[in-house]
Amino acid sequence: METNVINDEQVEILLSDLLEQYGYDFTGYSRASLKRRIVRLYGLDKALSFAEFRYKINNDHTYFKRFVEQITVNVTEMFRDPVFFKTLREEVLPKLGTYPFIRIWLAGCSTGEEAYSISIILKELNLLHKSLIYATDLNPTVLEKAAQSMFAMSQMKQYSENYILSGGKKDFSSYYTANYSLAKFNEDLKSKIIFSTHNLVSDYSFNEFQLILCRNVLIYFDRELQFKVLNLFDESLEELGYLALGTKETINFSQIAGKYKRLQTEKIWRKVE
């Protein structure tokens, strides 16, 4: 599909519509990746014209939800980057285990695989009973899927391998029940997860956390919006709390950089003021 089907000016019109109609602010997102995904959807749905495409987004709420789902990136898996989860298991969470209660914010949780991964590690460290994971995303459709705690059985072999590489010692299948083509994860894992919509661009801090994870979300934002979101995380993080980002993301060059010390491995920083 040629990227000139929708031009840069039309992308700006759509972003302006989203802000005015729905309060969704995508203006700080990287234009190249946004445009690529908008053009892909335009081609997939065989819109007759840009005007028709725009009209559907603005007037058909079901289609608007599809549009947001398609232009936000929802690529995730359980225990993705196992070494990162091993670091959480061995270095970060045991330190937080000394707290009377652990509040974790997983920002940009997508369909929930990461939330259940953290819940499993907390359970194995005997910390789940005194923890709460706030798993948030801009996209209500992916949150609905996450709350069902069901994932494709075809993924379980990969997830089990990731789990073992991340330091897991149990039989991974003990955490779910096979239900035809789906794996339904145990209720006790979900009981400590709160799934909720939160827009990193426009919403405020809503609690004080000991651990904030936001992996592979900031790469889709421009520099100014990245700094704004990092400040939001800083406001939301307790002293000596941890901030975890994706492999290509950093707090370097931001206003908050001086308050944090990076762990030797992985993109995890501790707030030391």
TrEMBL record:
- Note the Gene3D superfamilies from the entry: Vaccinia Virus protein VP39
GO BP field: methylation
Keyword check for Transferase: yes
Domain of life of the source: Bacteria
Q: Which residues form the CheR-type methyltransferase domain?
A: 1-251
InterPro entries named among the record's database cross-references: Bact_Chemotaxis_MeTrfase (IPR050903), CheR_C (IPR022642), CheR_MeTrfase (IPR000780), CheR_N (IPR022641), SAM-dependent_MTases_sf (IPR029063)
Pfam families, per the entry:
CheR, CheR_N
**Does Membrane count among this protein's keywords?**
no
PROSITE patterns associated with the record? CHER
Q: Which GO terms describe its molecular function?
A: S-adenosylmethionine-dependent methyltransferase activity
Q: Which UniProt keywords apply?
A: Methyltransferase, Transferase
Name of the protein this chain belongs to: Protein-glutamate O-methyltransferase CheR
What phylogenetic lineage does the species belong to? Bacteria, Pseudomonadati, Bacteroidota, Sphingobacteriia, Sphingobacteriales
